[in-house]
Amino acid sequence: MLTLSHSDFEYGTEYTFELTSARSSSGRPLDGSVVPNPFDFTTEYQAPILVSTDPEDGETNVPIETDVVLTFDRAMDTDPATLTFDCAPDPGGWSRGWSDGDTVLTLSHDDFTEDTEYTFELLTAKSAEGLDLAGSAVPNPFTFRTESPWPILIETTPADGATDIPVGLDVILVFDRPMDPDTGLVDFTCDPDPDGWELSWTDDTTLHLAHDYFDYETTYTFELLDALSEDGYHCSDSTVPNPFSFTTEEYVGVILIALGASVADEGAGVGWRFDGDLPLSIKVLRSEEGGSPEQLFTLGLPGDALVYLDRGVEPGVGYSYWLETVDALGMSERFGPTDVVKVRPEALVFGIENPYPQPADDHVKLRYTLAEDGWVELAVYDLAGRRVATLVNGERTAGRHEVSWDCSTVPSGVYLYRLETSADSLIKRLVVSR
Questions:
Q1: Number of neighbouring beta carbons within 10 Å of residue 186
Q2: Nearest-CA neighbor of 270 among 278, 279, 256, 260?
Q3: Domain holding 322: CATH number?
Q4: Domain limits at 207?
Q5: Which single residue of 42, 175, 214, 295 could bond 167 by disulfide (Cβ 3.0 to 4.6 Å)?
Q6: 319-340: burial string, b at 16+ Cβ within 10 Å, e else
Q7: Domain tally for the chain?
Q8: 3-class secondary structure, 301
């Protein structure tokens, strides 16, 4: 007996085998056959497998009119008696339709019931060659839930159990369907309550709830009590925890990573950098020759400012600088001092700054710089060249100077002011308007 091993035959294939030559042990050649040679045979057919379902296992919000669709890996027997299934609860009204070479079965039915969980199981099926179903590449039985007329909360920010939440973060609620845009129909609680709630829909499913700042290092519990879909149904369910809790971040304040001062062309330059959140406002303070720091101007700088030029310095005087910041919670911190800087006399350039404010109403400030000690005159003229006011006339030291002009007694209009020394002069204009 001769056994011929080989690679696997193909399923469901007809083969022809022929013995073409052979010899006996004594050397005599093959002289015929008492059985057919060549001979034909057909290999077995592979059993069918269920490869996909629609709806999928675990799917939610399935429309109530959705057909059940079963897809197999090969052509199937379309005789209704060979394919059986079970659906609980049973909507009734089943009908069948095969497509794609009898590999896809569509099962139509009466409408499912809203907001109901269904379990479907394919019990028996045969391939076109008559082989029984061998198994499934997807869950069988499989479960799905039909759509609900009531809106469902499907996502929250922060998520339940979240930690290190920024104190200014909005609460965000996401629903599974379009909602009524009237924010007055939304009801919720937050404990403790930061107050200052302002609600807005960024799209028809996403609600942002802005508020006053949370407290640092505090656990909050938020619960959505009610919201209305655009077709008038109240929110009654959630796929995420509701109520949900979260804990805010630890307070670290404003983080200053650099602060310095240096001599600039027109005075002393102060620069700084922050890490993380910026302050709401910044005040620059200056001390002279080691004295107490004093604020340089009444209004603070914006929180994103990075430099300040102090033009009001005198040559040869040592200055140090501080920053005072105010964060989103109104908490103030002071940083400094910088190293001492001194402006050299040669760093001063003769000039006039723009008047402030412009246009002026009753008073206007005029700032000027002298490169050296000496006589100076600062006077105001109308456009006809008539002198209106003499603000400075005498000896002044090198450096920055400021004078205020009471313009409340002159008519509205354009005026010229002239700065003159024994070596140079400049003219600029200003506007008085009431």
A1: 20
A2: 260
A3: 2.60.40.10
A4: 152-248
A5: 214
A6: bbbbbbbbbeeeeeeebbbbee
A7: 3
A8: strand
